Amino acid sequence: MSMIFGVPLAVLSGQLLIGVINGAFYALLSLGLAVIFGLLKIINFAHGAMYMLGAMVTVIMFDVMGVNYWVALFMAPLLVGVVGVLIEYFLLRRIAGQDHIYSLLLTFGIALLMQGVLTNIYGVSGLRYSMPDLFKGGINLGFMFLPYYRAWVIGIALVVCFGTWFMIEKTKLGAYLRAGTEDAQLMQGFGINVPLLVSLTYGFGVALAAFAGVLAAPIYSVTPVMGSHILITVFAVVVIGGMGSIGGAIITGILMGVVEGLTKTFYPPASSAVIFLVMVVVLMFRPAGLFGKEA
Amino acid sequence: MSQSFDSTAIHQAILEQQKADARKKMVLNVVLVLLLVAAPFVLYPVFLMKILCFALFAVAFNLLFGFTGLLSFGHAAFLATGGYTTGYLLTNFSGLTTEMGILAGTAVATLLGLAFALLSIRRQGIYFAMVTLALAQLVFFFFVQSEFTGGEDGMHGIPRGHLLGVIDLNNNFNMYYFVLAVFLGCYLLVQRIVSSPYGQVLKSIKQNEPRAVSLGYNVNRYKVLAFVISAALAGLAGSMKSVVFQLASLNDAHWHMSGEVILMTLVGGMGTLLGPVVGATFVVNVEYHLSQGALRDWVDPILGGIFILVVLAFRSGIVGELQKFFKKNLG
Amino acid sequence: MTMMKKLLTSAVASAMMATGAQAAISNDTVKIAYLADMSGTYRDLAGPNGLKAMEMAIADFGGEVNGAKIEVVSADDRNSADVASSTVRRWVENEDVDLVAGLVASSVSIAVSDILEENDRLGIVSGSAASSITNEHCTPNHIHYVYDTYPLANGTASAVVKEGGKTWYVLTADYAFGHALEGDVTRVVEANGGEIIGTLRHPFPTPDFSSFILQAQASGADVVALANAGADTTNAINTASEFGLTQSGQTLAALLLFLNDVKALGVEAAQGIQLTTGWYWDMNDETRAWSDRFMEETGARPTMIHAGVYSSTMQYLKAVEATGSDDAQTVRKQMMDTPINDMFTKNGVIREDGRMVHDMYLAEVKTPAESKNEWDLYKILRTIPAEEAYRPLSESKCPLVNK
Asked: How far apart are the C-alpha atoms of A14 and C347, rounded to whole Å?
């Protein structure tokens, strides 16, 4: 068997594929953050909590009402999106125009609150959610066993990412959105309800996080603290990509998944720290991130 | 002619007013110091020392955030570095007196601060916050990996030792007055810095950086210096904390600690001198009392609620809001 | 009958009170403190339900001891040695607390036992896994009650090697607890003729285990052992089942798995996994009877830690009653001299290093067909005798042990 740096090629190929799958996950999460920051200039530290909420809602809807996975895939992001709209309307709106830092602190507070309340209700051991029957099993690719579900995750995540990018960058709706958040007064003049647009954008951003949460429910332990672990990693991804760059967030997400995957192969203990190292290095040479525009 | 006469009169009135303000402040400060000196006879000294350490940490953070406008999301790294260094030295080298250990901890934190500053100072706003966060995560990784920190078990049994080899710090009262003296010294230092010409430049950087640049200031040098001083004081706070509690643990290096010091500063009032002290006192008390009361299981959500409330309703913090109130009502 | 017993014991106690001048309960109050993680990662192991278990013990004891009242205080340690340290200092220095129980995070347990030693009070650690607590960190002022990493590795690893799992691959959480467990497993596997062919240290916490499971599969080892805990373990087990680790002929061994973890995983994903436990609620009539009462109070079945908190509180109160004193050393000596026989264990003994040694159990997670309800999770395969399970005193680094 051929070896690369002491690792068999087959193992390495498997690790790269896993890296891309995890990267697709990061892409989905960082995309929502990038949308929210790019268009609204809100630093959403509640993003991890929204991801968690998406997963929790999926499990709870199944336990209480028997709502299945496919319905949850739409319902959970919708519900969490509504929560997002309410948060924007009642809380974030009050600090619009203040320093960005306040949005970070406010959303951090929201995250603590949500996590704490759910911990007291559901505990921290994790809620059980069964894999949908359709996805049980997997295929042998020769170099690794690929569970069907992981293949589905990468496929659907990429579709949603691309769709979002297309909508914001290439359609008329996206153009309104970008214009409305750049110059609210002008767009108001054109008869567009900018505050509504802002609420919906925030709702949409957190719905993306919730969508990632639904995807996570069958494979990861669903607990009220699952979002806090992933939050700052995802933030690092967005910063490396260039805050606010939609395409940058997607590409960097996948890239960082691969980088992390390689670290997990060659020096596993550093796999949680490597993204921060990349971030420091990238920002030294490109102050606005890989795909960001210099202010 | 008459106009200039008027302006001198106004000027004089302002001077008078300032003098009166200064006197009031002086009286307030003296009262506060007296209260601190008397406090351990009424309240529990170790708890008071905890408050003082966190207050110093918040004062250090506020020098950077409140007066220079730089939000560091990595200050936990300095707190932990100070604590671990001091703890390691005092545990392993019995020849060292306590203040030498503390000075060494502070020195290492200062160097780390310089490294952070050089790597991050050119970044603006949120990018600055994120670079400091990333660097602090790397420091956290280092501490988790290092044998000498004891990993998640923590570093225990750090001897308090003797101050200057003479004063026994195992006595809580001796320890308390030592911590208090260090705290007051640092507080006065920050007060001096803020009111000095250097401090004025920092403030002008916060208000309008391009203007400060166009006035010919080497803005980055000023910022680096502010960062290093802040890191040094944060390290000192960590060093003292490790001696007070006789332990150092990973919690100090975790990014939640960096978030907590932001909360303290914000609650107390950022950009005011007394704010961080009040904020630290408030947050430490809230956590302590809640974690023992009937709401024991609800500390995190309540802290989250405080965050939300402060950002929405009391952005100037306790001290800032009080200042506004007095200005409005007492002329 | 019980009346008679009570009369007798109180007679004995008052006789002792009369003779021993030392023997007295300070302030006529026995003050017991419960300190644990009430809101974080370890909440479900001990947490608020552990406090319930303690209160049950006090109520069962009668609410007072030798006429002195029993008071309970409690706090959330927030998994922070600082918070724990300032709380316990205040408890012992200002509030005259006699016993601190609960204690989960190892940094908290070690910090607290230092303070208790300084002030000569007693601590009973029920939640921590670190075997260093009664080894290099032992003090004459605390007892480690329920389990530690040594028997966990011992029980599971030796059983699995004997069943033919010769080559091992260990996934270790990269922190002190994981390293200790990995060390213990290596020792046991090698002593039983097995071989460690690879170890992998993963960061704590790790949200996605697929990369590590893949590497474990590629190693070709007979056994993949998980030297981690909590969400890391449940995530790893889920991912292993998703990637068909056991279908490809490898055995999965989880070294630390609590009842609440298995319940979260469900028997579908966890079936067949072998683990070592200090206690299980469905072992006999005595354990079932107590667990039924516990479930009425809390709505959940107790973990071994909950049972340990109940049992140790009971033992403590009995020792206070017997000696008529709440002095730490008097009570600890009495507890060491009295073998423990209750629903938690039979013939449990507290050694001079503070380790309570008792029989441990090798359990296997039931299959969906065997499991009758959501808490019907283990079948006990074998009892591991106390003397086999725990680290022998001859290997101890604790200075309290006379060699």
From this structure: 52
